[in-house]
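Good day; I would like, with your permission, to put a structural problem before you. A protein sequence and the structure tokens that stand for its backbone fold form the material at issue. The record follows directly beneath this note:
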Amino acid sequence: MGEEKRELPPVPDRLPVSVVDAHTHLDACGAVTAADVTAMVDRAERAGVARVVTVADDLASARWATEAATWDRRVWAAVAIHPTRTKEFGEAEKSEVERLAAQDRVVAVGETGLDYYWDYSPHDAQQEAFRWHIDLAKRLDKPLMIHDREAHDDVLRILAEENAPNAVIFHCFSGDAEMARKCVDAGYVLSFAGTVTFKNAKGLHEAARLCPADQYLVETDAPFLTPHPFRGRPNEPFGAAYTVRHLAALRGEAVHEVAEAVRTTAERVYRLPSVTTG
């Protein structure tokens, strides 16, 4: 049993419509080289997850993600400094993040936001860095990718105070129906990870049901948050296909409808080339 827990889940059957894994960490999944990236995305494509956005949380991963997005046409990147790493966030770090975020293959500024679960960075430092990333997203005219952990009220307040960018994505949305309504009303996009498949996530289930078809995405946050029934095992981008099917069941919709919705929204928000075939 212990050995099984360390193994990847099986690659699921291919979705009827190809989707985008809106948030993953290919480096944390173990990818180092271009060949590693290609192998991972090949597995994902077999499940109908044809494109991925690999996300950075510090400068080293930002440099890697930006380069990895040039290795394979199916890979894009997002860069920022994670809120838990903002204790020391000076001009040198800001300059490097801005340089990387401006690259053509970088489609979002993130993940940034607030994390009050961990105490690695003071709240004031996180909030200052969050405001800076909001401004960067607006200056670059790129989507803002939010990390929000036990900080809903402050995240929403700061977004309002700073006049949020045109596109805001709540990565691994963790709120309930009330929080979802506030985000939807503000025009934000909710990105659902494997957590929405967990049986005890009742509030998240309600949030997923009420979200309009053009305001949600699917992500893995791999190697974390592996969908049910493989919770606790390693995750990879192909896991998004499990979440798509679970969302379809939650929403009472056909799998192809949900897949088409998340593909279309990802293409619009990230400004990806349109893919009309499965």
